[in-house]
Amino acid sequence: MVDFECFMFRSLSLEEFVSAFTVNPEQGQVWYGWWSEEYDRLSWRFYKEQYNRHLLQEFRDFCFANSLKLSYPDELEESYDSDYYQNAWKRWQEQSQNLQEHWEVVECLLEEHSRPPRSQAIAETLQEYQQQLKQGWTDVEFETAKAAWFNVNFAAPSATEQRELNQLPYRSYLRSDRWRRMRAAMLLINFAKCAACGVLAESHYGGDWETEIHVHHLRYRKRGRERYTDLELLCKAHHDQEHHD
Ligand SMILES: [Zn+2]
Ligand SMILES: [Zn+2]
Predict the structure, then answer these.
(1) Which of 27, 54, 182, 237 could cross-link with 23 by S-S, CB 3.0 to 4.6 Å?
(2) Ligand 2 centre and the CA of 163: distance in Å?
(3) Domain membership flag for residue 14
(4) pTM of structure
(5) Containing domain of residue 37, as a range?
(6) Number of domains within the chain
(7) What pLDDT does residue 212 have?
(8) Ligand nearest to the CA of 212
(9) Is residue 147 part of a domain?
């Protein structure tokens, strides 16, 4: 069994949100509504994705142990043709009962942030977007809100923690709890999308975004006390390019 790594974050309160802007309270309220809607969508997908990735990892380990060449659980269910597969299906069902307890964790999060994308989402989004533009909620405001959200989720470390983090070799730092949480937060809030080419987010939430999308440091000296603007998401190709130029 692989550890289920589920990173949880808290959303911004109205006060925290409004304090990131200089607007009148009514405008702040309206903007907070849009922010919450968008944030809920992002986090809903993110929490679900964490669970799905874990499930897949377990399934692939199971297949490896049983010499099965399959990638997804439903492929196993569909392979009714031999006793061997039927037995494997039964064993997988037994084994995947453990996943139930992880599902309970995720279910709570989904409930907390549950506004799954609706079927008429595109039409609605377009309409919302036009209204937002009229009232000044643009990508600039959205970036400000994302930065505020990220920064409240990562309080500055104490002087001792800071010293410890700075002493770690860079590779060990990348394995630290603080960094793993930070990178998850960046992936969540930026839709696991490359800042340079903007590859469609969907494919990365659905796929192996952890290896395809990297969190790049714009300023290494801020290591251990990174703020939102010190980091950037890049796809592997753009990340390589960044380090070779
Ligand atoms: Zn890219
Ligand atoms: Zn980098």
Answers:
(1) 27
(2) 22
(3) no
(4) 0.84
(5) 21-137
(6) 2
(7) 76
(8) 1
(9) no
